[in-house]
Write a structure and sequence with these properties.
The chain has 352 residues and is of the alpha/beta class. The protein folds into 2 domains: 140 residues, Glycogen Phosphorylase B (Rossmann fold, 3-Layer(aba) Sandwich); 194 residues, Rossmann fold (3-Layer(aba) Sandwich), CATH 3.40.50.2000. It is built from 14 helices and 13 strands. The chain is globular and about 60 Å long. The model has no long low-confidence stretch (mean pLDDT 94). One of its GO terms (cellular component) is cytosol. This is Glycosyltransferase family 9 protein. It comes from Sutterella seckii. InterPro entries: Glyco_trans_9, LPS_LOS_Heptosyltrfase. GO terms for molecular function: ADP-heptose-lipopolysaccharide heptosyltransferase activity.
Length: 352
């Protein structure tokens, strides 16, 4: 059997969708399981052996390019499992497979055309996104246990190993999101770094290659000993980032795709979260979620994952705006800027 997973959203969504592959392979060991996603998402799937082929498509293709994609993949698969019910996911699923399954649409009358093209729909789960993705597999392989997350992995190069040589026992920190409202106070980061170093642990900073992240990391790390605080931002792949987090004493970061990588490695992971609904998008622990994350708690731990939020959650919980009406400048969010370093340290210090 040939099965295609379709995930046309962000990096973190793509990694969560990849959790379907090992679950399907466990039921159908001889199945071919491929994953279709945006070309710039492919790196986060590095080293995930349950995926046979990663198919990359353009994020913003012209109509001709998109038509070629559909023709090339026409009816190549038995099933397409789409993690979203968007227009593009619908067309890729319909053209690629004889049978399709996706989460139900919200307006059946308006989306009648989708219902004419797609074989089966599953309801959105009330909890985590992985619960909805679990339901996608049922029409194909029958009932399966709740999905466990997967993480990329790749060996470190000699140059990278040499760069990390000065570090002893370290905390891996991913301090920066491309969405500024998800970023924590720079001053609080610096306070926390001082506490980590005073405890005898070193710091490895991870991040992407953008100028914004480079400047952000420079601002929060400037002045600390260079043999104790090392930045590898922009120098490693997602798989290598996964390896570095696996080797860390603990991980600390904000709400990014790397948060899902860290949680899936099994390393004790601490996440500073703002308005994102944690019940749906909280990073899933390596061994799954014996309990759901609660939107009512400012501090909660499930297995290797701890989520830290501001003390007063309302009216911020579940806010979907990237501009905050309660903070100046509005690009930053009150619910992130109000979290003190001392609160984060109290949680993190338990793992050091």
């Amino acid at each position: 059997m040939k099965i295609l997973i379709v995930s046309l959203r962000y990096l973190g969504d793509c990694l969560l969708a990849a959790a379907l592959a090992p679950a399907i392979k466990k039921k159908l060991p001889d199945a071919q399981v491929d994953l279709l996603t945006f070309k710039d998402n492919r790196g986060i799937l590095e080293g995930i052996s349950a995926i046979d082929n990663v198919i990359g498509v353009e994020r913003h293709p012209n109509k001709f390019r998109q038509a070629l994609d559909h023709i090339r993949s026409w009816n190549s698969y038995d099933w397409a499992l789409s993690t979203m019910n968007s227009t593009r996911c619908t067309f890729y699923s319909w053209s690629s497979a004889k049978h399709q399954v996706m989460p139900q649409t919200f307006n059946k009358t308006k989306d009648l055309w989708i219902h004419l093209l797609i074989s089966k729909f599953v309801p959105w789960a009330p909890g985590h996104m992985l619960d909805t993705f679990t339901a996608l597999a049922e029409p194909v392989v029958g009932s399966i246990p709740p999905l466990k997350p997967v993480a990329p992995d790749a060996p470190l190069s000699d140059d990278l190993s040499q760069l990390l040589t000065p570090l002893g026992d370290y905390v891996a920190c991913h301090p920066c999101s491309r969405y500024q409202d998800k970023n924590w106070s720079k001053n609080e980061w610096r306070k926390l770094f001082s506490k980590i170093l005073d405890s005898g642990k070193d710091i490895c900073l991870t991040g992407g290659p953008s100028a914004f992240e480079h400047d952000y990391i420079r601002d929060i790390s400037d002045g600390f000993p260079s043999d104790k605080v090392v930045s590898i931002a922009g120098k490693v792949s997602f798989g290598q980032t996964g390896r570095i987090i696996r080797n860390a004493r603990a991980f600390l970061g904000v709400d990014t795709a790397t948060a899902h990588v860290a949680a899936a490695t099994g390393t004790p992971s601490f996440f500073i979260f703002g308005p994102t609904p944690v019940s749906a998008w909280g990073p899933s622990p390596k061994e799954g979620r014996p309990a759901q994350f609660s939107g009512l708690l400012d501090l909660q731990t499930v297995l290797n994952v701890t989520i830290i939020r501001q003390d007063q959650l309302k009216p911020c919980d579940g806010c979907s705006n990237h501009r905050c009406a309660h903070f100046d400048p509005p690009e930053l969010s009150r619910c992130m800027q109000n979290i003190p370093a001392e609160k984060v340290w109290r949680a993190l210090s338990n793992a050091l």
